[in-house]
Structure formats: structure tokens, C-alpha cells
Amino acid sequence: MKRIIAPFLLLISVVSLSCNSSIKKVFRGERTPHEAYADKLDDKDLDKTPLGRAWLAASENAVQYPHTIQIPYRQHGYFHTDKPRALGLQFTAKQGERISFHLSKETRTNFVIYADLYKLNGSGTSHIMSIDTLQSEFSIDADEAGTYVLRLQPELFRTGEYSLSISTGPSLLFPVSGSKAKAGSFWGANRDGGRRSHEGVDIFAPKGTPAVAAADGYITGVKEGGIGGKTVWLRPAGKPYTLYYAHLDKQSVQEGQYVNKGDVVGTVGNTGNAASTPAHLHFGIYTYGGAIDPWPFVNKALKTAPSIAQKKTDAYLKLTKVFKLDNGTSLQANTVLVPLAVTANGYITEFPEGRLLQVPFASVKTVTADAAVAQTGTSIKEKS
Asked: What's the whole-model pTM score?
């Protein structure tokens, strides 16, 4: 039977708090969906049982010992119910990127997956957001580069298949309208014979092409003179940086004016020290610490993960040969592994010690639960 996948998360922005109620609930200190479920376990005294304690321990271990992935990313997963599990996925985001997630589950099964996002801070983590399981998509704007962990965990005794995809794109609108606008000089290029480097990106377009607000916000400066010629400064609402538009032919806004994303702030030109160059917009981004590379903020190229092979995740796996681990040890052939997810590179599995391991498809074969029990001598029978 063909599986039907239904969405269950919400599109939201993390760094600047939006008006979405789900985000406000988290930042007002209210209980997250995951915490609320843990409270129910406490009410039923399940937290005092081995299974309840194992569920709570699994949630902590998933954040402390995540599986590292590269984005864009895609997986198809399944949580076996022989014991409580959670899966942590660690990834790095570039400054300026918008990281978008899509998480969906089978409609045939009545189960809930709690999704929580954490950001690594030094030796610890900070909780960024929790996702309402009635919603479908969510995203973060990486206003600074960082490493994140996405934790996925189902309720006790519940199981089902789900799919996760993570893609990247710009967090800001491209600042020049029209199909003829092309970026041609990027961050760090030599200027003035190498005496300085380029602190922005040059976007070439016919003179008079509209330069537009890359985000909602306030105009904090409209100036003329110096190497930038006619310039406009825009402070996006809720963001820790300011956008800089230089070499404009005309300025279409006033200082203190509020603009919406896509509003015209001026037109492309070659004023200032660009008088001898083709018309272009010098677009920059400045923080309190100085200029930063604006290209990831506006690069229109969307990066999505490729499709993955159809593989079973509700069975078990057995190694077909000796598999060497990074620490110099090996797993013997016929070792039974529990698959947690299928990716483009193979299976994410749990091996007998409970650690996560990525194995290529060619290194394992699927076996039934009964065959796995016969191999290990340990009961791993699925709970109904």
C-alpha cells in the first residue's frame, strides 16, 4: 500500500522573535511539548519506572551525543519500540543562511514526534525552540555562524515512519530587482592595489534598476559623498546588523522611514568611487564588530538534499562483514544493528553499546526481529 505522509510542524523564525504564538510560548518560559509530555510521565509515576527513566535518559543523550550531518540533508526514519530512543542530528549553519526543515509522518499510525532545536554554546547547549506537533515546517535564520542539534523523540510505546528534510537558502531578499541583476565581485576581493579588501558584494545591473529593501525595517541613513557616493542604510527589524546600499543613482527613501521587504530604496548607479565602472550596487552588512560577508544572506541559490533510496527501516540490520570503527576497534560480521534512519549515504544505526553509527547499504542486510533475537540471544521484540 502506498504510504501517505502528512506534515506536522510550522514555519517560524528563531533569531528575531516573530508574532507566531508557538515561538512566544517557548520564550515566555512555558513548558515545551516535550516537557509537557515528561510531566505526564511524572503524573503517572512512569518517570520512576525503568522505561520512563530510559526515555528521559535517551532525550538527554541525543543532545549530548548527536550524529553529525551535512546540510542540505534528507532522511527517512523509524523508531523501534524495543526500548525508548531519541535521535540527535548535529549540523553547522553559515552566517546569513536560512535553514528550513520539513518533518512529516505517516498518517496510518497514531504517534507523535517531539522536535527540539538546540544551539551549542561553548561546552553547553541552549534551547532554541520546540515544535508544536500539529504544525508542518520551521526554519531558523543564522544571524551568526553556529552549530545546532535537532532532537527527535517519539512518545513511549509509539512508533511509526517519518521523513525529514533540511535545506538552505538566503535569509534576506536579493537587494536588486530584475533578471539582469548579477553578482560580480565578492567579499574579500582586492581593492586599491591590495591596500584594502572588498567589504561587500557588487551586484551589476543596468543603471536605474530598482534597489529594494532586503528586509522589513527602518532607514537609518540617507547620505551622499565619499567612496560610496549616494548611500542608504537600513536596519532590519529585530536583527543585530545594518544593510548598506552604495553607489546609488537615486535615493528613494528618507531617514526614519519604515520600509517593507521589496520596497524600492533607490536605483542602481555608479556614484562615488564607482564613476568609472559599470553601474552596480555595492551591498554590505555591518554589525557592531564591523563588516561581514553579505553573500550567504542574499544568495538566491537554494540547496536541497537529493532523494534517498527506498529502504526498510522497520526491520533490523546485520553486518555482512567486519566493520572498522573510527576509534580503531571493529564490529564483527553478523553484529545486529538497529536502524534509526535511511540517508543518502546509508543507514544511521545504533550498535550494541548504544552508540550511533553510519553504515553503507552494502555493509548490511535486513533481518527480521525473530532473526535478530536468534542471533543475539536477547529479546528485542517490538512492543504493540
From this structure: 0.84
